[in-house]
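User: Hi! I have a protein structure encoded as tokens and I'd like to know what sequence might fold into it. I'm fairly new to this, so please keep things simple.
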């Protein structure tokens, strides 16, 4: 294990924000991960887990404790079964599954971060979620001090949520197992309307795997959602807010606010989200509340490519970012009566 003291954390995040950690440990094997976690727990030292850093907002004062960077490696294919070490770069793993002719995660191309973070957030985009293909998650249980294997049903997956996110102090993901599909070089059925339109097919159709992946990468790039060190529009955590899920009663009230504010003929985005629930679009809410692409005059601004991404223009602090986020949340609440929820995990700060 590598160990550093008073170590900068900003370079380990896609926002490039945040102060230093008292100590930074980089672990490259599962055994090293477990040893570092046990040491911190035994000594009562606060512990921060870092994978790809694509879903972290770290306070300017940094982290008073041990930051553990999980840099394990491992990509194992057995037929349609895939096992990834938590530290594997997710977008690289997706590319390798496409090269192997296996479907199931091709529309999750270009998502920054590590494989171990995907079940925590139940990562999803363009009609796919990892919960549809994950079979098991191997994790270290800090409560029992054992390594456990949790089946998909035990992970309590829901929209951008899981058992791991609900109880962040308990589990440390070590490995993730997937069951993919051999569809003779074709993708899973295309579910997302925008993807289908760009591909020139109908929702439910299959396309060559490479075409699906490349199309998603192009769509993400056009929205500033593919990391580029030279492009400040990508210095973000991707979507900063989750799409609100409303009860029937809440949606009726929301619809009335929309008509009152925007006109009787305006229909807000609405997608089925289970019994008596409807999902609407956070990006639409932000835009219609007056926070358009490129909004802001300081070092933290809304992306010029996508209203869901808050970005560091190069000289921002975490407080600059949070001030912008709070302004957006307050504006949407005032306009439509909906309180947006941040998707990234905050460390040492609150929205």
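Assistant: Happy to help. Inverse folding works backwards from shape to sequence: for each of the 351 positions I chose a residue that suits the local structure. Here it is:
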């Amino acid at each position: 294990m590598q160990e550093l003291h008073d170590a900068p954390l900003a370079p380990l995040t896609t926002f490039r924000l945040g102060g230093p950690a008292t100590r930074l440990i980089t672990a490259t094997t599962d055994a090293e991960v477990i040893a570092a976690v046990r040491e911190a727990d035994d000594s009562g030292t606060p512990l921060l887990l870092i994978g790809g850093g694509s879903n972290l907002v770290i306070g300017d004062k940094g982290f008073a404790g041990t930051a553990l960077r999980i840099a394990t490696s491992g990509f194992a294919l057995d037929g349609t079964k895939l096992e990834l070490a938590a530290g594997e770069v997710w977008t690289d793993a997706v590319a390798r599954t496409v090269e192997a002719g296996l479907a199931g995660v091709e529309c999750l191309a270009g998502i920054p971060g590590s494989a171990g973070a995907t079940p925590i957030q139940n990562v999803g985009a363009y009609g796919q979620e990892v919960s549809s293909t994950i079979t098991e998650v191997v994790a270290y249980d800090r409560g029992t001090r054992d390594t456990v294997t949790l089946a998909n049903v035990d992970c309590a997956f829901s929209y951008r949520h899981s058992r791991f996110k609900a109880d962040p102090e308990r589990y440390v993901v070590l490995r993730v197992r997937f069951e993919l599909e051999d569809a003779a070089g074709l993708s899973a059925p295309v579910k997302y309307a925008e993807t289908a339109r760009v591909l020139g097919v109908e929702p439910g159709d299959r396309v060559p795997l490479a075409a699906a992946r490349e199309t998603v990468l192009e769509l993400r790039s056009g929205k500033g959602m593919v990391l580029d060190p030279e492009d400040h529009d990508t210095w973000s955590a991707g979507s900063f807010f989750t799409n609100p899920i409303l009860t029937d009663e809440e949606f009726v009230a929301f619809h009335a606010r929309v008509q009152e504010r925007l006109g009787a003929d305006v229909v807000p985005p609405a997608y089925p989200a289970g019994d008596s629930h409807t999902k609407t679009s956070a990006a639409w809410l932000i835009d219609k509340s007056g926070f358009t692409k490129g909004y802001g005059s300081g070092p933290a601004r809304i992306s010029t490519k996508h209203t869901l991404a808050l970005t560091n223009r190069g000289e921002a602090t975490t407080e600059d970012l949070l001030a912008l986020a709070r302004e957006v949340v307050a504006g949407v609440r005032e306009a439509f009566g909906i309180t947006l929820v941040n998707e990234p995990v905050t460390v040492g700060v609150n929205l």
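A useful reference point when you look it over: The longest strand covers residues 171-179. Feel free to ask if any position seems puzzling.
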